[in-house]
Amino acid sequence: MRVVCKDKDYGWIVYASKNSEKNYWQIKIFMDEHTCPRETKNRMSNRKWLACKLVKKPRKYHNLKHFEAAQYFKTKYDLDLNKSSLTRALGDTRAIVYGDATVQYGMVKDYGLTLLKSNLGSTMTVGVIPQPNPDDDPIFDKMYICLDGCKRGFRFRCRPLISLDGTYLKTQHGRQILFAIDQDSNNHIYMIVYAIVP
User: Fold this and answer.
1) Where among 84, 99, 114 does a domain terminate?
2) Are 57 and 134 members of one domain?
3) Closest Cα partner for 122 from 55, 54, 193?
4) Has residue 41 been placed in a domain?
5) Residue 42: inside a domain, yes or no?
6) Considering the domain boundaries, does residue 14 fall inside one?
């Protein structure tokens, strides 16, 4: 087996052959003068490989940016990656770490049934967009959840003033999550109900 530098002007070469008696490979020629410049682009660094190497980062740094990922690959692997490769790799990495939002929304009905079985007295409503074809699964639209413990706690421990708070969900589907909150007798914020709305 003969391995040479891709550029013929540089003299780096390794030649190895298999020893048939003892069944191992032996290096016969090794010329270590490698003077060609280092390549920072590598066709083997495909989307799957990039996502595999990057998967630990979003678990530790939740808001990993493009330039931070590019800097990580530059320092660790000496790779210069274009923006589209990084975008796809970050998308795949986030799908591995956080799960696919479409699949998660498909499990909302099962989540609701489990919630109602384990928390008797709770209320949950799921709104869906019906599909023209009845065989297709309906599309998630909105959801309302009020746990029984939160209802009882509000009745007996909270002040009679309800506030509304919310934030945007940063998924490909958008949506907002809204909370009805109050203050309990210890001046702590107490969640009464929450809802996901378009």
Assistant:
1) 99
2) no
3) 193
4) no
5) no
6) yes
Q: Could you tell me the pTM of the whole model?
A: 0.55
Beta pairing class for 13-19 and 2-4? antiparallel
Please give the residue that has the higher pLDDT: either 196 or 63.
196
Average confidence score pLDDT of the chain = 82
User: Are 162 and 182 within 8 A, CB to CB?
Assistant: yes
pLDDT at 144 over 80: yes
Dihedral of alpha carbons 60, 62, 65, 66, sign: positive
> What digits encode the pLDDT tens for the residues 29-69?
887 776 666 665 666 677 888 888 888 777 777 777 888 88
Mapped to the 3 state alphabet, what secondary structure does 119-162 carry? CCCCEEEEEEECCCCCCCCCEEEEEEEECHHHHHHHHHHECCCC
* Domain carrying residue 81: 47-99
- In angstroms, the CA 64 to CA 75 distance is 16
Q: Are residues 16 and 57 in the same domain?
A: no
